[in-house]
From TrEMBL:
SMART domains: PKS_KR. This is 3-oxoacyl-[acyl-carrier-protein] reductase. It comes from the Bacteria. InterPro entries: KR_dom, NAD(P)-bd_dom_sf, Sc_DH/Rdtase_CS, SDR, SDR_fam. Signal peptide: none annotated. GO terms for molecular function: oxidoreductase activity. Belongs to the short-chain dehydrogenases/reductases (SDR) family. Residues 3-176 form the Ketoreductase domain.
């Protein structure tokens, strides 16, 4: 029988590719959305991950629909780029809230049921820039590297209960987020990627699914790059 999977921000982009990949494997998959509704064939729950109340209500709805969450994929994320000297504090805290504090919210909400079941999988979608840094993305890079400390601490706290927590660090993936980048910036990025192309969302999804699979039962606290070689050595 399939597992109960929840993907935050699974209504589009990388999250949707992840959700579809689990669904194709026969799992019951729920996605959060902020009003767009659920894509065909997936169970949708309305949820802004910056709201603890929304997160709690979303989990309750998912539990009623398909049972306690056994695989949590914390994927929702935003950018609000700007150079440090011009970045307002609201731009910093807003990005950290959506990308990092939200991961704490969903992991905490998922953990009680996982501990009771003595099993569970958590995967956090970070970014290559969390480890490399990125000019103009102090807020985003800080939030994404924060996920590494968060996941590794969960791995230590809950490993004894059969729960794994891992991080996927994509490079540049073809989605709405990268489509916003100016053409010149896209060419600069491609020049630094040994594989010489952007990733497809499905390539990130495959790695997330592997980390949630039986084959990855002895992998926890890992940071797995899916970046075409961009971050090699970090
Ligand atoms: P998109 O911009 O295409 O999608 C972002 C998703 O996050 C949407 O589903 C969006 O929901 C959701 N989201 C944003 N804020 C919130 C919120 N407050 N509450 C609930 N959902 C929210 O991004 P990608 O698919 O490209 O990125 C997905 C993840 O992968 C992000 O964490 C991103 O940082 C990371 N990543 C992306 C890379 C890339 O090259 N694209 C590279 C490395 C990492 P809604 O539709 O309602 O806006």
């Amino acid at each position: 029988m399939g597992r109960s999977v929840l993907v935050t921000g699974g209504n589009r982009g990388i999250g949707l590719a992840i959700a579809r990949s689990f669904a194709e494997a026969g799992d019951s998959v729920a996605v959060t959305h902020r009003g767009s509704g659920a894509p065909d064939g997936l169970f949708g729950v309305r949820c802004d991950v910056t709201s603890t109340e929304d997160v709690d209500a979303a989990f309750t709805a998912v539990e009623e629909h398909q049972g306690p969450v056994e695989v949590l994929v914390s994927n929702a994320g935003i950018t609000r780029d700007g150079l440090l000297m011009r970045m307002g504090e609201d731009a910093f805290t807003e990005v950290v809230d959506a990308n990092l504090t939200a991961a704490y919210r969903v992991a905490k909400r998922a953990s009680a049921k996982m501990v009771r079941a003595r099993s569970g999988r958590m995967v956090f979608v970070s970014s290559v820039v969390g480890l490399l840094g990125s000019a103009g993305q102090v807020n985003y890079a800080a939030s994404k590297s924060g996920l590494v400390g968060l996941a590794r601490s969960i791995a230590r706290e809950l490993g004894g209960r059969g729960i794994t927590a891992n991080v996927v660090a994509p490079g540049f993936v073809r989605t709405d987020m990268t489509a916003e980048l100016p053409e010149k910036r896209q060419q600069e990025i491609l020049g630094q990627v040994p594989l010489g192309r952007l990733a497809e969302a499905e390539e990130v999804a495959g790695v997330v699914r592997f980390l949630a699979s039986e084959h990855a039962g002895y992998i926890t606290g890992a940071v797995v790059p899916v970046d075409g070689g961009l971050g090699m050595g970090h």
